Each structure stands twice: as C-alpha cells, then as structure tokens.
Amino acid sequence: MTAATASAPPETARFSRTTAYVDVAVVVAVLVGTNLVAHFTTTWASVATVPIAAAVLLVLMRRRGMAWSELGLSPRHLKKGTLYALAAVAAVTAVIAIGAALPFTRQFFLADRYATISGALVASMIVIPLQTVIPEELAFRGALHGSLQRLYGARGIFVAGSLLFGMWHIASSMGLTAGNAGLLSLFGGGVWGQVAGIGLAVIATSIAGVVFTWLRHHTGSLIAPIGLHWAFNGLGALAAATVWHLSLA
User: Fold this and answer.
1) Non-local CB neighbours of 199 within 8 Å, separated by 6+ positions
2) In a 10 Å sphere around its CB, with 0-12 CB exposed, 13-18 middle and 19+ buried, how is residue 19 labelled?
3) Is the separation of the CB atoms in 138 and 57 below 8 Å?
4) Which of 35, 55, 126, 180 has its CA 20 to 30 A from that of 246?
5) Which domain range does residue 225 map to?
6) Could you tell me how far CA 150 lies from the centroid of its own chain?
7) Does residue 208 contact residue 232 with C-beta atoms inside 8 Å?
8) How many other CB atoms are found less than 10 A from the CB of residue 185?
C-alpha cells in the first residue's frame, strides 16, 4: 500500500491507480481546453465556458464514482466550512482596507476595469461569484482535488493542484500590467513588463491556491475556499472602485 493510498479517505480506497490516473488526466484536459476557449475565442465563450466546464466536471466525477465528500460538497462539513469562510472574509476585509488606505499600496488598487462603483458592485456580487469563484472552486478544489487525492494524497494536492491553479491564470493576466497603475509604474510597459506581470500573477495565484487548498483540506468543504476566493476578488473589486472614485474627487 502506498503512502497516498494509506492517507486517502475510505471511499477512495477501492479505486485502482489506473482509474485515478485517468480521472486526473480528464480533469486537467478539460481545464486546459476550457482555459483556451475562454480566453482565445469569443466574448460569449469567455462568459459561459468556465461555469459550463465546472458543471461538466462535477457530473463527470460523480459518474466516475466520486463521493460528495471527495468533492467538498458533503453537508456534514457545511458548518465548519461556513465558519472558516466568515473568518476568511473578515481577515481579507481588514487587509484590503489597510492596503487601500496606505499611499504606497493604494496605487495597486487603481485597476481600470473597476472604474465605477456600480460596475464593481455588479462584478462583485454577480459576475465574480458565478463566472469565476464558484466554478473555479468546483473545478480545482472539487474535481481536481478529489482526483489528486485518490492518486497522490495531500502532498500531490498541495503541489500539483496549486501549480495548476497558478498556470490557469497565465492567459487572464496578459493585460494585467497595462491595466493596473501600480504594476505599470513598478514593471513598466512593453513585453518585459507584461511578462513580469504574468509571472507575478502565476506566483500569487499559486500561493493563493495553497491557502485555498489548505482550507478545503482542513474543513472538508468548498465553502471555506469559496469564501476566501470571493473576498480576494469581490472585495478587491469594490476597493478598486472606491479608490478610483476617491482619486477623482
């Protein structure tokens, strides 16, 4: 018996390693294809592809015999996940408030995509949860987490899962430097500035992936990483719009 099999939940023990390899390969292939379609095809594809792919992965993994607990969706972990989610949102709120208040870090909130309060509210409460946070957590801390757990155990989830989550953000960060006043002043424009922005995004989201994975692993629930993920993105959007508004006042 391998270390990964010994540490796996009872419901995963009956599956062969061949089955586990197939599951991981399928999830990764779907994620790669989804990322390419979402960022290099049409506008409608960018809106719908990730949520559809997350739903497909959820159904597919269930048909492959994955339990709700392996996907982080077991009701018995809901209470603990919710408590950690609330704590995570509170912590991120405090950090963002401090960052937006300090002159040195305030410039990093000047992202032109959130130049209006109304636009940031729609993004924070509707677009970000439905198009980004929930689908990504279902895909990465749900389907990918469950398939990696069967094959490699916790170590594989933290290493491979977090690195894949960082690489997932390569395409979406291609215009990051040009659209952020702080990053533009730090790295400059041009090709190297764009490369630096992409590298920073991959590192930052890989680290975030480790934290999201820890919450998922510790609580057994997707609610906790969903809460923290939304706090970073949703509250960050509201803070960016607020800083833009105040800078124009």
Assistant:
1) none
2) middle
3) yes
4) 126
5) 3-248
6) 21
7) yes
8) 12
